[in-house]
Amino acid sequence: MRFHFAPLGLAVLFLQPFSLLAQSAPVSFAVSLPASDAPTLTLGGAIERAFQHNPGLRAAQRDIDIAVGQRIQAGKIPNPEVSYLREGQQQDRRTTTVQLNQEIELGGKRGARIASAERERDVAAADVATYRANLRADVVTAFFDVLAAQERLALANASQELSERVTGAASRRVTAGKISPVEETRARVAEASTKIELSQAKNELALARQRLGATWGNKFGVTDSVQAPDAAIGAHPTTAELLAHLPGSPQLARARLEIERQRALTDIERSRRVPNLTLSIGSKRDEQVGVRQTVVGLSIPFPLFDRNQGNVLSALRRTDKDRNELVMVETNLSVELTQASLRLESARGELLVLRGEILPGANSAYDAATKGFELGKFNFLDVLDAQRTLNQAKSQYIRALAESHRAAADIERVVGNVEQHGRLINPTVSNQEQQ
C-alpha cells in the first residue's frame, strides 16, 4: 500500500483554525478565509505551477535532451578519409594515387562510449528527479509559510480589535471617574503595540507570498490567498521505518548512478589502450609506364610507450571517490532524516499540548480578564498580563506549526514516498490526549 508522505498530512492536520479552541469564547482566533468568489491557491495547484514553470527544473530537464544527443553521437563510427597524392611534375612521368582510408575501432570503444552516454542520461534523469523532490519540498514549505503568515495576520487583526475594545472600555471608565487616566494611557500604548504587530504581520505575509511565487518564477509573488488542504488522515512512520526507506532516496539513487557512469568512463579509458586499425584501399596510376595498380594497406599504432595508463588510473580513482561520496551522502541523509523525524515528533507533541491545554486556557483567561476589566473587577495590569500570556501561546503555536511542516517537507525531500508500515499514529487530537 502506498501513500503520499504522511508527515505532510500531519502538518496539515495541525493547521486547524483557532476557532476549534475557542468555540465557547466570544473572541475567535480563526483564520479569516477568503470569500467564495475570491481567487484561492491550493497546495496541489502551487506544486503544479512550480513543476510547469520553475526555470531551474526546465534547465535540469534540458540535461536529459543533451544526454540524448550525446547518446546518438556515441553510436557513430568514424568517417572515412579520402586522400589524393601526386608525385612528379612532368605529365609523362608522374604518378597519381587516390586512396580511401577507414579507421576501424578496436577494443570495444564504440560500445564503451554508448554505455557511458546512457549512464550520463540516467544521471541527468536522476538529477531531474532530485530537483523535483527538492522543489516540491520547497513549495510545501513556502505554501505553509504563507498559511502561517495568514494565521499571524488574522491573529494580529484579532489582537487589534481586542485592544480597541480595551481602550474604549478604559476611556469610558476614565470618563466615569472609576479609574485613573494612567490606565487609559497604558491601554493606548498596548493598542499601538498591536498596530505594530499588525504591520509586521502584513509584511511577513507579503514576503511569504513572494517566496512562494518565486518557486515558479514569479518575481512579484502570489496575490491569491492560499487554502489549507483537506486534513486527510495518514500514518506518521517512525524514525526506524523512515531509515528503512532511505535506500530509495533520489539523492542516493543519483550517487549510485554516478558510480555507474564513472565505471563506464573507466571502460572507455581501458578501451583506448587498444589502438585502432586503419584500412586503406585505392588506385595508383603510373603515367610513365601507363599502368594502374590497386593499393591496399593496413596501419596500426604500436603501443610501446603510451598505453593510456595514466587515464585508466585516474578513472579508477574517480570511481573510488564516487564510492566514498556515496557513503558520505548516505550518512548525511541518515542524520538529516533522523533529525527531521525527531523535529516532527517534537512539534507534534508541542502542538497537541498547545491545542488541548495552553491555548484554550490562555484564551479563557484573557476573555475573563477583559470582561472583568469592563465590569471594574480587575485592573488593567491583569488584562495586560492575560494578553501577554495569550500572545505568547499564539506565537508558540505558530512556531510549532511552522516547524512541523518544515520537518515534514525535509523528510519528503530526503525519502519522497514511503510504504506504510508498522502501527498507525493518528495525528488527530483525541479526547484522551487532551485530558
Question: Would you give an account of this structure?
Answer:
- With 435 residues, this protein is α+β, with helices and mostly antiparallel strands.
- It is built from ten helices and eight strands.
- The protein has helices at 6-14, 43-53, 55-74, 109-175, 181-214, 239-244, 250-271, 309-374, 380-415, 431-434, and strands at 2-3, 40-41, 81-87, 95-104, 225-226, 277-286, 291-299, 418-419.
- It has a four-stranded antiparallel beta sheet, with no helix packed on it. It has a two-stranded antiparallel sheet with strand order 1-8.
- β3 (81-87) and β4 (95-104) form a beta hairpin.
- α1 (6-14) packs antiparallel against α9 (380-415), α2 (43-53) packs across α4 and α4 runs antiparallel to α7.
- Residues 1-38 and 418-435 have low confidence and may be disordered.
Low-confidence stretches: 1-38, 418-435
Strand content: 5-15%
- End-to-end gap: 34 Å
User: How many DSSP helices?
Assistant: 10
Helix proportion of residues, in percent?
A: 55-70%
How are the strands of the largest sheet arranged?
A: 3-4-6-7
Mean pLDDT across every amino acid position: 81
Helical/strand content category: alpha+beta
Q: Compute the gyration radius: what is it?
A: 36 Å
